[in-house]
């Protein structure tokens, strides 16, 4: 038997059903016995939503009112009544089992499952299997319209069913028409209909992913804005109703191995991915989550791995993974098992522990632990920030993808952000400086399309492009080297910046409006260096958080906000893709260079690659410059150059009030570079963010 089901929400209707997170307000259903072609009683039930405000479309199409809905039962009670009434109708027809049949997938996948998940009650098993009437109809009638273009009305018109929609109540006509369509399909003697129902996975399955695996780009999305403590199960719950591939949730980490609020999610097919995109800006708790398309290559970069050790660790499926951080470097497997105690036994004992190490074998202080059930994992999480030895230990939920990303990509293989040969360390005065004054001669563009380039910005600026300073366009990239949606432009005067902000504010670029604000060079510098602008003023860059970084370049940042001249040591193609050349017109203004020809046209705060947690390197060999670079630097500046590799030492953990006198006293008896203590270089906020230390000095 089938239970033909139709529903509506307080918001969008039709193809956008469920895309606006509005609650269910109507359920209509009827039992259909296929062998005997008999039907049960048609039932219509209103549902009381938490928010009784109805959209204009809902009022117009359904004819429902908030007053009428206020007298209805809540969703959990309505679903109980649904089960009872269906069972009663089946007994009358002499049947005991049934499968749901709905008009498309939206009601089941995009409305019922997400809403019940948010309201913390379980759906009965019948809602995890259903027939999509549109797909069954297209199977029976291949010459009909494509599945995505089908509606109840178009299917009825294709069959020539003369049913007047105005004669019945909203919902009743839809169910009666669906039943008539089903009977027409049965009369065609189609053998392939109602044989393979759609399924909804009741639980997300964890598992490893190999780098050699092929991942279809049409099945991957990027979720952005996640709470930092989100686990793979939390993300699966956000996409409740959609089928995520096994091991298909990969949490993205920043350069320090900490979660950056993004995740790549792989679905079983492109249809599920398209439904996931409709959840753009749906909420996880109080935060809205942005959902965008991504590629299979991006997914494999985060989730893929090939290590035998990791593969063996993750071979035990359906385990709960906990990440431990801050372990003493001398901690052993016995110490960790003793810390966890008998109330949370580790799966396989010592085999359920995986310590993370650097390539040279040194421990990082991180470990991953397997637990066989949720209860044991919860007991382990209760030990968050308890003491082991002399250190408190942090415990977090983790994923298989995070294990591979941390262990493989961060420590045992190449970094997630590949690096070019190490650039020169001496501070080189670059030719392209960014103003840091208080004059408000700059503008900030916020909300740019992520596909926007410099040419798009110049077109957006219109006639004002002639007032842009040379090398004055600075686009900001995020941690993954992708456009962040922000850009800064240096104008020739504060008046010009004011006029641009007035003229272009909330002007459309492609399909998005762009906010334009007037700002000073100082404010621009702060944001480019990782700080933020808010109502209370400037917030400096956080010392231990990553700044913006490109996908394929690491460099030591200079003490001023600049586009580093050392970028010119490498071919531009290694830094950024080639830019488009604007089409010249007769009325075009004189040619102006908006960005350096031999360096990067996007302003980026280059960050060096460091594992997590931040540690001091054992040697300073990683900052030795190529001989040619040093020679070039020597001819371009009088800044002291390292006489030999190893002549530079880095001090970490200094008191914040440390001055030159204290440092010179500390190094008493050692020979340092003379010239009025020029060998002491205090690291600026920008450079400090690169080295990931609270406050440091570099001594020559």
TrEMBL record:
The keyword Hydrolase does not apply. It comes from Nothocercus nigrocapillus. This is Epithelial splicing regulatory protein 2. Residues 219-296, 320-400 form the RRM domain. The lineage of its organism: Eukaryota, Metazoa, Chordata, Craniata, Vertebrata. Belongs to the ESRP family. It is found in: Nucleus. Coiled coil: none annotated. GO terms for molecular function: RNA binding. The gene is Esrp2. It comes from the Eukaryota. GO terms for cellular component: nucleus. The keyword Repeat applies. InterPro entries: ESRP, Nucleotide-bd_a/b_plait_sf, RBD_domain_sf, RNaseH-like_sf, RNaseH_sf, RRM_dom. Gene3D superfamilies: 3.30.70.330, Ribonuclease H-like superfamily/Ribonuclease H. Its main location: nucleus. Keywords: mRNA processing, mRNA splicing, Nucleus, Repeat, RNA-binding. GO terms for biological process: mRNA processing; RNA splicing.
